[in-house]
Amino acid sequence: MTTPTFTPRHVLRGHRGNVFCLALSADGKTLVTGSKDTNVRSWDVASGQLKHTMGGSKSPIMGIAASPDGKLAASGNVTNQVLFWDVAAGKEGAKYSGGTGHHGTVNGLAFAHDGSFVLSVADDRKVMRWDAAKGKQRAVMNKHEAPVLCVAVSPDNKRCVSAGSDGTARIWDLETNEQLHVIKAGPESVMTAAWSPDGSLIATGGNEETIRLWNPETGEPVKDFPTGVQSVFSLAFSPDSQWLAMAGSDNAFYLWTIENPALTPANSDPSQGDQRLLVKGHQNHINSLAWSTDGKTIVTASKDETARVWVQG
């Protein structure tokens, strides 16, 4: 197995405040970011150029998702709003009717891989499904016992996994809106979850210095391994599902082998006594990352008020 290496290509500056979230279009050409400054920005990944700055949120943007074609985005903020954006035009898109949304900070969003719907999760413990083109709420799933912090959609768009402050990850059937499995992911908050592109694994991470892998068919544990990082904020699988990228509270991101994470890849950090492949560059915590579907690009968003583009090679 060839160890991937990533080098910095672009530093994306413009936000005035913590860049809490990002999302990458399926073709890897368009990046959208959300920040404490209440703005959503869209970027050309190849050139690193800012395309649009979109205002309209009443509070910091905490979560964001992009449609596969990069033309639409959905964001969530501190003041309960799910907002839809016409990224191609650089303006606010469809609006939902007042009173039909979340009650509490909207922490995370995820688009279906075919663009047919978008999911949002919030402090009100709910998972909501939306028609992004119309800004209409379509379903509500409500079994969590504490704020929900993240959500990811299965590759076939038939299920999702949500996770949060109740220490669980929950797998849902999106055709029936029924809960399929409750995963006891840890005693601490589960802050991030990712579904592997081949559908075989779910990865979770949070405030316990551990990445855990799960079987999505049964909800049973597969393996876990220590990270050496106090908080894990974001996880993303490589397109071939052989690697896992992790970002967290120590200003770097890491790559782990899925097959045998106990093996030490080249360029790891032996002083840590673990298997991490370390990529440095940010000056503060990395809140979010995404791995392009062609495997050649990783993008990161940080508390240092920048987003960054990293390319393989």
Helices and strands, with pairings:
Blueprint lengths: L5 E8 L5 E6 L5 E6 L4 E5 L5 E5 L6 E6 L5 E6 L4 E5 L4 E2 L13 E6 L6 E5 L4 E5 L4 E6 L6 E6 L5 E6 L3 E6 L4 E7 L5 E6 L6 E5 L3 E5 L6 E6 L5 E6 L5 E6 L3 E6 L19 E4 L5 E6 L5 E6 L3 E7 L1
Antiparallel strand pairs: 1-28, 2-3, 3-4, 4-5, 6-7, 7-8, 8-9, 10-11, 11-12, 12-13, 14-15, 15-16, 16-17, 18-19, 19-20, 20-21, 22-23, 23-24, 24-25, 26-27, 27-28
3D structure, described in words:
- The chain has a 4-stranded antiparallel sheet, with no helix packed on it.
- The radius of gyration is 18 Å and the shape is globular.
- The protein is 0% helix and 51% strand.
- It is an all-beta fold.
- The protein contains no helices and 28 strands.
- The protein has one domain: YVTN repeat-like/Quinoprotein amine dehydrogenase (Methylamine Dehydrogenase, Chain H, 7 Propeller), CATH 2.130.10.
Whole-Å distance between the termini?
15 Å
CATH topology: Methylamine Dehydrogenase, Chain H
Count of DSSP H/I helices:
0
**Amount of helix:** under 10%
How many extended strands? Answer: 28
Q: Which descriptor suits the 3D outline?
A: globular
CATH superfamily: YVTN repeat-like/Quinoprotein amine dehydrogenase
CATH class: Mainly Beta
What count of domains describes the coordinates?
1
How many strands, which pairing sense, and closed or not: the largest β-sheet? 4 strands, antiparallel
Relative strand content = over 45%
Could you name the ranges where pLDDT drops below 50 across 5 or more consecutive residues? none
- CATH architecture term: 7 Propeller
